[in-house]
């Protein structure tokens, strides 16, 4: 039987199902910086952030959201799923570039809230 694969430097193990989990990383020139939560493709759990909402909602035993719970209030999301910062930037530009809607109070906030909902 092959040995269980170990997570690499930028991966971690899911506290619920033990699958190896990735997160969104951005190269800032001197190294990679985490810019999204670790999330489990197998069971749907995801790492909680540092916002008061996340701290109130997280599983205190793991610091994660249990499988099936919505991701961090700080996470980039598109169409109700976790997205990379790059994907989110692209979707934002597609919606608002050259479009004066972004000046309307609440329009950008509503768009972000809408992206958290499954389609
Ligand atoms: Zn899992």
Task: Give an overview in words.
The chain is 23% helix and 15% strand. The protein is α+β, with helices and mostly antiparallel strands and 119 residues long. The chain has two domains: 9-75, no CATH class; 76-119, no CATH class. The strands form four sheets. Strands 1-2 form a two-stranded antiparallel sheet. A hairpin with a 2-residue loop joins strand 7 (77-78) and strand 8. The relative contact order is 0.13. The model has no long low-confidence stretch (mean pLDDT 94). Zinc ion binds next to loops.
Short description:
By secondary structure, the chain is α+β, with helices and mostly antiparallel strands.
Which labels suit this protein?
119 residues; alpha+beta; two-stranded antiparallel ribbon; globular
Helical content (DSSP H or I, runs of 4+): 10-25%
For the terminal residues, how far apart are their CA atoms?
Answer: 41 Å
| Biggest β-sheet strands, sense, barrel | 2 strands, antiparallel
> Got a strand count?
8
Enumerate the strands of the largest sheet in spatial order, edge to edge or round the barrel: 1-2
Low-confidence stretches: none
* Backbone structural class: alpha+beta
**Relative strand content:** 15-25%
Rg for CA atoms: 16 Å
Write down the domain tally: 2
Question: What's the overall geometry?
Answer: globular
State the helix count: 3
Order of helices and strands: EEEEEHEEEHH
- Which ions and ligands are bound to the chains? zinc ion
Mean pLDDT: 94
């Amino acid at each position: 039987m092959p040995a269980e694969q170990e997570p690499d430097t930028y991966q971690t193990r899911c506290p619920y199902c033990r699958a190896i989990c990735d997160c969104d990383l951005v190269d800032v020139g001197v190294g990679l910086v985490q810019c999204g939560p670790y999330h489990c493709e197998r069971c749907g759990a995801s790492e909680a952030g540092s916002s008061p909402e996340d701290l109130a909602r997280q599983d205190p035993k793991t610091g994660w959201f249990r499988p099936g719970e919505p991701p961090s209030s700080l996470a980039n999301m598109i169409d109700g799923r976790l997205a990379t910062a790059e994907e989110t930037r692209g979707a934002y530009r597609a919606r608002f570039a050259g479009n004066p809607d972004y000046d309307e109070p609440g329009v950008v906030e509503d768009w972000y809230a809408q992206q958290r909902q499954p389609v």
